[in-house]
Specification:
425 residues; nine-stranded mixed beta sheet; Rossmann fold
């Protein structure tokens, strides 16, 4: 039997089909991937506490930190890789902005080694690389006057992906455009696509500053998602649960006590033995999905050290509303909608105002951005979808777009060719 199938069967719990006699489940998994895990935890202390700039520098790449203030006073931090040893400094490099998914940050683009990391591949290919950090992440906690380190400060945490699109997107795009005098390529993963779709519909003038958008794990319409964590939490987060319930879930920040304990548990309990036993793999899989055949176990400890990052409860509530109702619209305030919008229901995001050449990639096994929803979003975006590509790998899932060990083969090389040849912009 193929080793990847063996690992997958072990993960989902069909132990009996593989294990007999005195051989335990943990023994079986240890025999298969023990050496990889042991190597991972040998190197784990060397990078577990490193942040985005240190992770870039330790690989020999230059990094710049740029702060930008949004129109509603949030301070965002971006990291720039302006050149590399393979591509020396030069005028006129085309900027590429990479924006992460939910519960992640700019560090998600650095989990792979340079030869298969999209950020480093872009830098080595002559592009000016920018790594964004959405408001509320550990890297973008600044505000001109609100305290941002209090998880119960409802005023600071009063945002969802709507504000990320309305304020964060124009602030970052305009900053890069002003500094470089170049139109940008935008690459979004998961929530990074959601805020782009909403942001362009709210700021259609931004389209003139964007060459093309690359959408990984496209998240516009999401009502068919099968992710267990999101499906289980959605009923508690939709507007029918009331704002009081939302506040009880951890004030303004999404489950801060749980997240703090969750991070602690990963670093404390994801020992070599428990990882061999599949415990941490399974937890990671429930939250984000995991493709055993595309996961490099040597990189998993570093990934777990930086996941999950922080965001607002309102962001999750907004996602839950769209997932439950099959909509792509602004935040539903229930009885307060009329005061907020002048209508009983929140307005839909207007797809007709979206005019950016868009390249979409999707995976058959993505339990957050499932194919039927991706195709519905693509249909809403037409005629702006210039390429719609199914990743030619049957178990490609949500996180494979950033941690898949063959991501370079299945999509990054194609993305680079499109950018190099100015195919769509």
């Amino acid at each position: 039997m193929d080793i990847c199938k063996v690992l997958s069967l072990l993960l989902v719990g069909t132990w009996a089909s593989l294990v007999s006699g005195d051989l335990t489940e943990c023994d079986a998994l240890t025999m298969i991937c023990g050496n990889l895990v042991q190597e991972a935890f040998t190197t784990y202390p060397n990078y577990a506490d490193l942040k985005t700039p240190q992770l870039i520098q330790r690989l020999g790449y230059p990094v710049e930190e740029h702060n930008v203030t949004t129109a509603d006073h949030y301070i965002l931090t971006m990291y720039r890789i302006p050149y590399s040893n393979s591509s020396p400094p030069a005028l006129g490099k085309i900027p590429v902005l990479l924006v992460h998914g939910v519960l992640a940050s700019s560090v998600q683009w650095l989990w792979q080694p340079p030869d298969r990391s999209l950020a480093f591949m872009l830098a080595d290919s002559g592009f000016d690389v920018w790594l964004g950090n959405s408001r509320g992440t550990s890297y973008s906690r600044g505000h001109t006057f609100l305290p941002s380190n209090d998880p119960n400060n409802l005023t600071y945490w009063d945002f969802s992906f709507h504000e990320m699109g309305l304020y964060d997107l124009p602030a970052t795009v305009n900053y890069i455009n002003s500094l470089t005098s170049q139109r940008i390529y935008y690459v979004g993963h998961s929530l990074g696509t959601t805020q782009f779709f909403s942001g362009i519909s709210l700021n259609p003038g931004l389209a003139s500053k964007i060459r093309a958008m690359f959408s990984l794990a496209t998240s516009g319409y999401i009502n068919h998602m099968t992710n267990a964590f999101f499906r289980a939490s959605a009923p508690f987060l939709v507007i029918s649960a009331t704002e009081q319930t939302i506040n009880q879930l951890g004030g303004g920040q999404f489950l801060p006590q749980v997240m703090q304990q969750y991070i602690g548990d990963f670093t404390t309990y994801c020992t070599q033995y428990t990882l061999n036993c599949g415990v941490c793999n399974t937890v990671f899989g429930v939250l984000f999905g995991i493709d055993m055949c595309q996961t490099d176990f040597r990189e998993l400890p570093g990934i777990l050290a930086h996941l999950p990052d922080t965001t607002s409860t309102k962001t999750f509530a907004h996602i839950a509303q769209d997932a439950t109702l099959g909509t792509f619209r602004q935040y539903d305030y229930g009885l307060n909608n009329f005061a907020e919008y002048g209508s009983l229901l929140p307005p839909n995001y207007d797809w007709s105002k979206y005019h950016v050449p868009t390249v979409i990639y999707y995976g058959d096994n993505d339990n957050l951005a499932v194919p039927i929803d991706v195709l519905a979003t693509a249909n809403a975006l037409r005629p702006n979808v210039v390429q719609l590509s199914r990743v030619n790998y049957s178990t490609w899932d949500h996180m494979d777009f950033v941690i898949g060990k063959d991501a370079d083969v299945y999509l990054y090389n194609d993305m680079l060719n499109i950018m190099r040849n100015h195919t769509y912009g």
